[in-house]
Design a protein that fits this description.
This protein is mostly helical. The chain is built from 24 helices and no strands.
Amino acid sequence: MENPQEERRSRLHGRLVIASLAGCVVLGGALMLLPSERTATRAPAPAPGAQALTAVTAGVPAALPDLAVLIGERETHLRRHPRDAESWAVLGTAYVEQGRRTAETAYFPKADKALRTSLKVRGKGNAEALGGLAALANARRDFRSARTWGEAARKLEPKRWTTYPLLIDAYTGLGDYKAARASLDKLMELRSGPAVSARAAAVYRDRGWREDAAATLSDAAASAQAPAERAAYLERVGQLAWERGDREDALRHFQEAVRLDPDQRAAQAGQGRALAALGRTTEALNAYRVALTKQPLPQYALELGELYESLGLGQAARVQYDLLRARVQQAAVSGVDEALILGQFEADHGDPASAVRRLRAEWRRQPGIAVADALGWALHRTGADKEALRYATVATDKVHGGGVRSASYMYHRGVIERELELYAPARRHLQEALRINPYFSPLHVRAARAALTALGEVPDEDLPVTPPPCRSGRCA
């Protein structure tokens, strides 16, 4: 087995050198005409629809107004030319991006119809539509289907670089981190640039290489040309800063992302997290409200509800929890799997037994690290701490795949160990949670500190060796 330090040195030595994207990708057979006489005159910027087309076909973030223009153009075109398979694929992929960015899941059935129409019109050899269906499945958190569609697209066109980011997302959602790394390696062989760097950073983060992830994402943001793309990468830099507990740095990146792209709602929610940790509660509440108004994701509703609850505003928290349930139900109608967020919510604020049932089924379908953590915590909330520790171990132990440095995962493991009277490892994991990010949750940070105080001084001892859970979703 290769030495991890040697692997790290080799990887860093051969690190991806970021190259700026040279001009816009010319798509659809259109020619970009350069002025032959007035060389001092700058070529006009591409129209909004063309800008969105370049972004959508390259799998990078697009500005919402440009996306709306592109969708309108393609819908109009297809009324006159219903046999244009390429335009159907572009339209379907644009619907996916619009649904993802706005949290309007009603776009997803429209995307599915457009992409399948593209397949029907062209028949075999339609990697564009297959990639669009993989993107749609990822957006719906249906990672098995995303893997199926993505692998079909890869088989058809192995050198089509835009397929590999989709496969990375699918493999990660399924807990197949070896395949995700292999897909990244192939992607980096085929392509360089900001979009590739951003994907590399996500894999580095999942392996626990947080500093490398932050540096690579910063390079991607600096090299990105379109404001919406740069804003998306800055939001991810801010999220990495938040995960390590750097409130001020996170806030700066979130604010810059929103300045570049006012529709960057993930960055607005990020501002809510950072501002709450800084004690700027009124501003934090306003940031969350803005994000929820324009992108009503269940995750934002849960975070805002917990912030209200930490302030003693129970009624306001219940309003957000009701919104979360309503959004999950709406998403299910459009084929979106929200079992993870619903399980997380039910474990802490609803019915833990229901959370266990949902998350067991989710683990059988797609056993990623986030599901392992959520299932372990839900089992703890029902009193099944021995089984809970098996899943918490998967989420936090690199030997079993849990490379992500997450304060909440460590907190969950520490609390479970305390209930099992494993006091030394419980103390170490609770301390680690607060060391990683001392502001990770307005509710659970207080509980972590109280648990450490209650533990007091305990003798040091080896961590227990806990086998991982079986992949069937049941443990011995």
